[in-house]
Amino acid sequence: MNAQQLYDMMKKVQEPKGYYFNTDSGRVFELLDALILNKQRYGYMGCPCRLLAGDRDKDRDIICPCVYSVPDIAEYGSCYCNLYVSKAWNEGKLPRDYVPERRPPGKVPF
Asked: Rounded to the nearest 5°, which phi and psi values hold at 52?
C-alpha cells in the first residue's frame, strides 16, 4: 500500500466521524509514509510521533488513530501529531496550539 491509498482509505473511515486530515498535505503524506514504514517494521501502524515498544499489546493505545486522538481533537482541534484535525482547526477557527502528550509516562518504552 502506498501513502495515497492509505490516505484514501483512512479518509473514508475518519471523515464521517468528524476527523479530517490536516490541510498541510506535505505533513500528512510525511506522516502516512511513516505509518507505512512502522507497519513494515512492526506489523502495525504505530504513531510515528511516539516511541514504539515494538510489541503490539504494549503499543495498542498508540496504533493510529491512537486512543488519545479523540480527547486531543475535542480539546485542541488536532491530534498530537497533527495528522487528524477538526473541521474548525482546518478552517483556521481554532488556534494552532501545541498538543501536549497524553500518554502516561509508564507507557513510554524506555
From this structure: -95, 145
Rounded distance between C-alpha atoms, residue 6 and residue 14, angstroms:
12
Q: Nearest 5°: phi and psi at 20?
A: -115, 155
Nearest alpha-carbon partner for 71 in 93, 45, 103, 94: 103
Residue 28, C-alpha cell as written in the block: 500528512
Q: Over the stretch 86-106, which tens digit does the pLDDT of each residue have?
A: 999 999 999 999 999 999 988
Q: At what angle do helices 25-42 and 3-14 cross, to 10 degrees?
A: 100
pLDDT for res 55: 94
Can you give the pLDDT at residue 11?
Answer: 96
